[in-house]
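Why do we care about 3D structure at all? Because function follows from shape, and shape follows, mostly, from sequence. That is the central idea of this module. The next example makes it concrete: a single protein chain, its amino acid sequence, and then its structure expressed as tokens.
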Amino acid sequence: QVQLVESGGGLVQAGGSLRLSCAASGRTSSSYVMGWFRQAPGKEREFVAAIARSAVITDYRDSVKGRFTISRDNAKNAVYLQMNSLKFEDTAVYYCAASNDLVFRGSRTMYDYWGQGTQVTVSS
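And the structure:
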């Protein structure tokens, strides 16, 4: 089992950048496919990005491609989401997630563990 704690959220102006971090404790994060999701007020939670155990393969939702970058440092048991050129519509609570799936399925991955989330607010 793994525990996930997100950090790095905050208030930023449109066009700005934020870097979210997800610290994993318990079982090493290298054992999991990792992902980021977000949920805006009144909307369903949606997939943002995912990264394979090896960090070689990634996947993104179309609206963040070219602006967001997911990465991981297995030695530090951490996953990151670098968010550039932020838009008002990126405002949401962002969640880190871990999957036991042995195959990387990108946006179709089913996740077993979730963090508590970190708020990202982009002012227009």
